């Protein structure tokens, strides 16, 4: 799997957390290189090991693993004539202790948890060598009774040093005036007396050192010289004996090196397995099956890098009747998090890791390919759109019927019409490759495309219209809405601006039956919330009369019409324009509604007398007052807006 996709899904961050659960450098290195296994049986084996390790920890506590710090640095010296130092031998003995304890720990679990406990059978008991090292080495030193020869040498050294100290103490007591201090000082390995400068000739012997001020001479008296020489010879004998003992221990370790290496391998493997178990416990994760069946199901899944108490669990499924899921909904609604969660949990499961979910299953993927985030590159001089397309082209080259593809904000970053077209072409290509894919988008045309294309299904991120807050809940089978106009109105944008925005976006005023409640907020009726007005590409008007145009002209001013799908009654105030949009007055609001959504309820001829003045219905009170004023006298400053029979103003 490409490292780039790892980082996009943030799998590398999961590995960082997993790495902290391991003790040994080898296990940490193995974790850094962890990738999805390509064999179903291999995935199953690793998942089973993770599950058993967690159960063992829950039954018997934390395993006595060894960090094996600097162990390999010591063992690499073997076979080269080198001698291991006491500290190195002490570390090896500690490793043998950990092996013995781990073997005993796994022995308790072998009846119930055979997959992991069986590793204990491969651990060799090296307690004899452990005992021998511990008998000889204590606190990084070779003890006196390591051998009878060493014990005898150190006894002689102690006796000689006692005689030296005795003679020096006698000189200090009997000639206090000669000395600047009343104690024996060891300088450059010699026992000396701190003699004042003016009395240096009173003490026979060798000057070993002089104080920084020059006022004190450190003199080794000649009376203790022969004892000092004896101690020096004994020190050489001591060093030789210590080296002999250390060489014997080094040889003993070297003889058992094959068994030690097997134990190291077992310890590293168990460290890796129990690290996965520790991660599972920390994330409150579950073992979910992974198979070759092209199906993914996640029940109450959580993104492992987000706090569990701050996120809404994800329910998701793909496979079987549909291979592609198209997620729509408002910004900040959690679409990208849902996309990353699907990809990240899929990778984790295929790596033999437990996933933070209550249930479900995953499929084997040869690739988990994703295009998430803007990916803008300054160094490569790529725009957001160019970066997306470069990535998607690579994805299309790699994807096949064994792949999982995740695309965020498909077709964004360019002209909406062309972006929508590219998005549909890409989705068709993925569908043709028969891979599993999930895409997020804002384009309403793609929702229609998914609805009409076999193997594709719409999904949406739920949104609370009252609180204006995303619910971060994925609902499969339902297409989402951007809710932009509704949110803007709820936040207080004037209704006239909402209507203007609707005309600019859709070519007509979206009939939103607002109910004013608390000042600037409004609540759409249930029926109106269900209205879906598709985006349309604006083309040059066709002057030819089409059947649709002829049909739109059947509505006359004053006709009572039914508006669908809201089933509201309105009155036509303006005939259809070249787009087929008819002016309809609904509840004192003048709206432009496509003729296809209108049905004649009662014709005007049955409602009003011939030559009826429709200004009574459609004119405002202000217009009527103006008409009344003009009836009395001419005033050029008065302007009356009227509607002619062709719908013009």
Automatic annotation (TrEMBL):
Keywords: ATP-binding, Coiled coil, DNA-binding, Hydrolase, Nuclease, Nucleotide-binding. One of its GO terms (biological process) is mismatch repair. InterPro entries: AAA+_ATPase (IPR003593), DNA_mismatch_repair_MutS_C (IPR000432), DNA_mismatch_repair_MutS_core (IPR007696), DNA_mismatch_repair_MutS_sf (IPR036187), MutS (IPR045076), MutS2 (IPR005747), P-loop_NTPase (IPR027417). GO terms for molecular function: ATP binding; ATP hydrolysis activity; ATP-dependent DNA damage sensor activity; endonuclease activity; mismatched DNA binding. Residues 403-419 form the DNA mismatch repair proteins mutS family domain. The keyword ATP-binding applies. The keyword Repressor does not apply. Residues 143-170 form a coiled coil. This is DNA mismatch repair protein MutS domain protein. It comes from Pseudobacteroides cellulosolvens ATCC 35603 = DSM 2933.
